[in-house]
Every structure is written in C-alpha cells, then in structure tokens.
UniProtKB/TrEMBL annotation:
<dbReference type="InterPro" id="IPR001328">
    <property type="entry name" value="Pept_tRNA_hydro"/>
</dbReference>
<protein>
    <recommendedName>
        <fullName>Peptidyl-tRNA hydrolase</fullName>
        <ecNumber>3.1.1.29</ecNumber>
    </recommendedName>
</protein>
<keyword id="KW-0694">RNA-binding</keyword>
<feature type="binding site">
    <location>
        <position position="17"/>
    </location>
    <ligand>
        <name>tRNA</name>
    </ligand>
</feature>
<dbReference type="InterPro" id="IPR018171">
    <property type="entry name" value="Pept_tRNA_hydro_CS"/>
</dbReference>
<keyword id="KW-0378">Hydrolase</keyword>
<comment type="function">
    <text>Catalyzes the release of premature peptidyl moieties from peptidyl-tRNA molecules trapped in stalled 50S ribosomal subunits, and thus maintains levels of free tRNAs and 50S ribosomes.</text>
</comment>
<dbReference type="Pfam" id="PF01195">
    <property type="entry name" value="Pept_tRNA_hydro"/>
</dbReference>
<comment type="similarity">
    <text>Belongs to the PTH family.</text>
</comment>
<dbReference type="GO" id="GO:0072344">
    <property type="term" value="P:rescue of stalled ribosome"/>
</dbReference>
<feature type="binding site">
    <location>
        <position position="74"/>
    </location>
    <ligand>
        <name>tRNA</name>
    </ligand>
</feature>
<keyword id="KW-0963">Cytoplasm</keyword>
<comment type="function">
    <text>Hydrolyzes ribosome-free peptidyl-tRNAs (with 1 or more amino acids incorporated), which drop off the ribosome during protein synthesis, or as a result of ribosome stalling.</text>
</comment>
<dbReference type="GO" id="GO:0000049">
    <property type="term" value="F:tRNA binding"/>
</dbReference>
<feature type="site" description="Stabilizes the basic form of H active site to accept a proton">
    <location>
        <position position="101"/>
    </location>
</feature>
<feature type="binding site">
    <location>
        <position position="76"/>
    </location>
    <ligand>
        <name>tRNA</name>
    </ligand>
</feature>
<dbReference type="GO" id="GO:0005737">
    <property type="term" value="C:cytoplasm"/>
</dbReference>
C-alpha cells in the first residue's frame, strides 16, 4: 500500500494569529478539510491533523489518502512536528507538501516547487533541518512584500488588508486546488496550470 501524503499548513498557533498573512497555509488546510467535511483533532506529534481522502478517482472511487496537519508549534519551530508526523506515518519526503506564505510572490499568485532554498522563511528552514532534506514539495501562496521600507516581519504578522480580503477566498480555493492537483496529477502538471497568468 502506498504511503499517504502529508500536507502541512504553516502558521502560528492561537486565535491572535489566525487571520495573519503568515497563517495562510493553515487557512488553505481549512479549505481542504471542509471539502471532505473533516475536522482537525490533536495528535501526539504536536499537531492537529485531519485524515481525508482528497478528491475522487475515475469511476467515483475515493481519492488518495492525505493527512492534513497544522503544527501546534510556532512557525520557526515547525520542523519538529513535521518530522514526527512523517516518521509516524512513514511518509517519504517527496510525499510531503508544505503550504506557506511567500513574500517574494505578489498577493493572489501561487507558485509550486520541489526542494530548493528557503528564501529566509523560518518555517521552511526548520522543516528542512528536521527532515534533513529539502526535497519536499512547496505550495507558495503569494502575500507580496510591504510597501516602501515597511518591515517584512510586521507585514506577515498582520491580517490581510481590506483591499485584499475580497480576493482571499478565491486564493485559498486556488491553493487548495493546487494541492489536490499535485496529489492526483503530479507537480509538473500542477505547475503548468498554476504558473500560467492568473485571471483578473
């Protein structure tokens, strides 16, 4: 039997952070869980998890098994829970998908990749260190850089701006679609779809 997929949504724990740009990965996981009417429960790995079948296969069969995980740790120490879950589920690194905010991508755009650097993202750096490998998949959800000389750390720890909020449901839906397509069709097919110019 094939190993499940492990899809991790990065963010900080607690209601004070829930609407922050830094928590967009966890928002995407909420969308994925809602598609399966699943709820998150506590796991000994220090994460909240939802075990789902993502989408459907030809003939109406349930899609692949996917464990959605939201670490209970703060962003910069996400690696411990991710490593613990990957080990517990026996998930290879190429079946780990991390959904996270990305400053270097404009708001409401999505980019996908496997491996590579962390671009200063402390959550990714922690995961790379804990796994001992950078070859996991990333769904990079664009939040854009702040204007002028505003501090990037402050920017990601603020909620989405008023002018961004109308597009947020669409962005979360698109990022969830990207996760589903990676799981069903592979990274290259998903890149071909989601790296095209997005509609206005």
């Amino acid at each position: 039997m094939a190993a499940p997929w492990l899809v991790v949504g990065l963010g900080n724990p607690g209601p004070a952070y829930a609407g922050n740009r830094h928590n967009v990965g966890q928002m995407v996981l909420d969308e994925l869980a809602s598609r399966s009417s699943a709820t998150f429960t506590s796991h000994r790995s220090r994460a909240r998890v939802a075990d789902v079948r993502l989408g459907t296969l030809p003939g109406g069969l349930p899609g692949p098994r996917v464990v959605l995980a939201k670490p209970n740790s703060f962003m910069n120490v996400s690696g411990g829970p991710v490593k613990a879950l990957a080990s517990y589920l026996d998930v290879p690194v190429d079946r780990v998908v991390v959904v996270h905010d990305e400053l270097d991508i404009p708001f409401a755009q999505i980019r996908l990749k496997s491996g590579g650097g962390e671009g200063g993202h402390n959550g990714l750096r922690s995961i790379s260190s804990a796994l001992g490998d950078k070859a996991y998949l990333r769904v990079r959800v664009g939040v854009g850089r702040p204007p002028g000389r505003s501090d990037a750390a402050d920017h990601v720890l603020k909620d989405f701006a008023t002018h961004e909020r109308p597009d947020l449901p669409w962005l979360l839906d698109a990022a969830a679609d990207a996760v589903e397509m990676i799981v069903h069709d592979g990274l290259t097919a998903a890149q071909q779809r989601f790296h095209a110019p997005l509609p206005d």
